[in-house]
């Protein structure tokens, strides 16, 4: 899908939409709604509570006519789906005499499914306070003894690409997932549309989570002027929205200059250009 807006920023704004191991989330959403925009917030946005980088997705639910069109395209491309089961069996046969199937020969779609299905487990939770070292060791040893046979059998299958490929080809659901990933990608290509993408570079807070306020040329704090809805309040130094604009000015967003644009105003211009039905200037 094409991108529009402030695309020169941090590509991590797409978050989970860029994570191959979470393709099912992307596909679930895109089957039901159009992705309008991805806005990456500044890392300090939610400080002091958290410094986790966060993105906001703007989506619009499809109408029934749009769903019917997508279903027709889905049916059209489904018959052209690759024979993934045959591809995997061919890979296993070709490299049967080798120690393993090399990473570089794995098709991208199959490698992505392997990453999604056989992801490395998350780190164990920290030891609760008050637990002695001897108690923790005894607990770990007991767990290892009871799970030893099961873990050994699982490791034999999961060590290396060969075991993972054998598990995939033996599981109709995983083969089905491969096909569905491919079909969804092809449908997305046929229904290509622009997406507004932006990244906030001035979040209005410092690393401690305290607000950063706008300063004038003399270094003095700037307040909203008389008559403004936020009259007398300090202006936060941020680039998400231009609070100086009136409703009438925003209604004629096409006429705004580059100096007047923050992320919100750019999205409004994008919405007008794309003729989104939820935003009309008149």
Q: Can you walk me through this structure?
A:
By secondary structure, the chain is an alpha/beta fold. Helices cover 41% and strands 8% of the residues. The chain has helices spanning 23-30, 64-78, 84-94, 108-117, 133-158, 160-169, 172-190, 247-251, 263-273; strands spanning 3-5, 33-40, 55-61, 195-199. It has a four-stranded mixed beta sheet. The longest helix is centred in the middle third of the chain and has 26 residues, at 133-158. The two termini are 29 Å apart.
Tell me the strand percentage band.
Answer: 5-15%
Counted beta strands: 4
Task: Give me the side-by-side strand order of the main sheet.
Answer: 1-4-2-3
Distance between the terminal alpha carbons, to the nearest Å?
Answer: 29 Å
Largest sheet: 4 strands, mixed
Molecular shape? flat
Q: What's the rounded overall pLDDT mean?
A: 83
The oligomeric state of the chains shown is: single chain
Helix content: 40-55%
Helix/strand order? EHEEHHHHHHEHH
Number of helical runs? 9
Stretches where pLDDT is under 50 for at least 5 consecutive residues are: 7-14
Radius of gyration: 26 Å
Note the topology.
Layout (H helix, E strand, L loop, with lengths): L2 E3 L17 H8 L2 E8 L14 E7 L2 H15 L5 H11 L13 H10 L15 H26 L1 H10 L2 H19 L4 E5 L47 H5 L11 H11 L9
Parallel strand pairs: 1-4, 2-4
Antiparallel strand pairs: 2-3
Helix pairs in contact: 2-7, 3-6
């Amino acid at each position: 899908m094409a991108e529009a807006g402030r695309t020169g920023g941090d590509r991590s704004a797409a978050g989970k939409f860029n994570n191959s191991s979470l393709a099912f989330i992307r596909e679930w959403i895109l089957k039901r709604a159009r992705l309008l925009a991805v806005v990456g917030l500044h890392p300090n946005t939610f400080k002091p509570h958290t410094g986790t980088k966060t993105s906001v997705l703007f989506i619009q639910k499809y109408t029934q006519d749009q769903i019917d069109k997508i279903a027709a395209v889905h049916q059209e491309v489904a018959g052209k789906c690759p024979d993934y089961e045959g591809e995997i069996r061919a890979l296993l046969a070709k490299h049967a005499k080798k120690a393993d199937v090399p990473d570089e020969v794995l098709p991208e779609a199959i490698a992505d499914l392997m990453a999604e299905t056989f992801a490395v487990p998350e780190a164990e939770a920290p030891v609760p306070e008050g637990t002695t070292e001897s108690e923790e060791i005894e607990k770990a040893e007991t767990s290892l003894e009871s799970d030893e046979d099961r873990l050994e059998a699982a490791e034999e299958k999961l060590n290396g690409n060969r075991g993972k490929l054998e598990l995939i080809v033996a599981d109709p659901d995983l083969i089905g997932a491969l096909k569905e990933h491919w079909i969804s990608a092809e449908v997305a290509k046929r229904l290509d549309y622009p997406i507004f993408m932006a990244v906030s570079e001035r979040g209005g807070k410092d690393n401690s989570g305290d607000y950063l306020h706008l300063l004038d040329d003399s270094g003095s704090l700037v307040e909203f002027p008389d008559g403004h809805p936020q009259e007398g309040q300090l202006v936060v130094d941020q680039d998400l929205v231009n609070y100086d604009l009136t409703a009438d000015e925003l209604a004629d967003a096409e006429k705004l200059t580059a100096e007047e644009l923050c992320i919100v105003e750019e999205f409004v211009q994008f919405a007008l250009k794309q003729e989104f039905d939820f935003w009309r200037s008149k």
